[in-house]
Design goal:
elongated, two-stranded antiparallel ribbon, single chain
Amino acid sequence: MKATLLERFSEKYMPEPMSGCWLWIAAIDPAGYGRIGDRRKVHYAHRVSYQAHKGPIPAGLDLDHKCRVRSCVNPDHLEAVTHLENIARGDWGGKRNSRKTHCPQGHEYTPENTIVAKPTTRNPFRTCRICRNKYVNALRRNQRRAVKAKGENHVNVLDF
């Protein structure tokens, strides 16, 4: 007789004593979430855990890992929240970068020293003005050298 999904679930996590997380030790997807399958479908392990221990996930809500560990299936570490709340609590790349106060070369991001992409840009970003100017000046110097090496009389200035 085949084991039920919940019986198989209970064999696929390991409690972590320090954090209290129940770490999923079976299949993990590329985003770091545990996966478990039955005969018909593959399920997220944290959703199976929440439903088994706390009941159905309310319609229109996401499960947030309060511990920030995606492979955790401890139902006490999961909370049903709106999608916007889940994103606001997260630590995704853009949010992480927005907290940076200095560029990689150590220049402070101040209003005077920061170039911000237009709001309509699909992938918004900010750039250090000092580093951007150094980059553009180096491009122009290299272009002038290339023109002199060819013996041409005109320089095509980069349009930035």
